[in-house]
Amino acid sequence: MLIHGFPLDRSIWNELVPLLEDRFDLIVPDLRGFGRSGTVDAPYTLTDMGDDIAALLDDLEIDKAYLAGHSMGGYLALAFAKKHPEMVSGLALVSSQAAGDSPERKQGRYDLAGKVMEQGPAVVAEAMAPKMATGERLQQFARVLMSEQGVAGISGCLKAMAEREDLRTELADFDFPLVLIHGDADALIPIEQARDTLTRTDRARLVELPGVGHLPMLEAAEATAEALKQLETF
Ligand code: MLT
Hints:
Mean pLDDT: 97
Structural class: alpha/beta
Radius of gyration: 16 Å
Bound molecules: D-malate
Largest sheet: 5 strands, parallel
């Protein structure tokens, strides 16, 4: 399952699908509040969003899956793995981290959620686009995609991310392969976070992508696909 990040939708994986579909039966959902998925009018957590994933797998009668989460999708995948470890064959964190937010970052998310409620998704799109990718073309792609997402999903996830758990110490308990994929030019989540994750479990591998920003699935699709295939090989 390929789980998109914030505030994006399933379409970020479009280039990866043809590179992976020979190896995996792919499930590529829109998370609640993004793309074509509706949302709820009450606060929710990343664990709740993980439960959406568990419900989707149950509906599809799938007991166990490999999960690849991009950025916030990785936070969600980690929350899912903590609650439903028996459903995880392996985990990939793409441009993500296991740490929680600092108090300043947390406050920043609440402030941003307030601005989004007043002014709409363009506030987030403008703030994040320059940090999303290394080239202008992909920054513009991300800007447009972020502007198309709904206010409820954006503000709901800002709060869910602010309240997420720090799961760094849980990593040592995970009994499945963990592939970390990270660009060394990521301006949103520094590669040091992935290097730190690597030290916390002996079941992890890190694939560092030189010159790549926060969107490896678009900036380096083939290298990202090859790295994801490693999930099956250890
Ligand atoms: C994401 O790309 O999903 C978010 O930028 C992650 C975050 O804000 O921590």
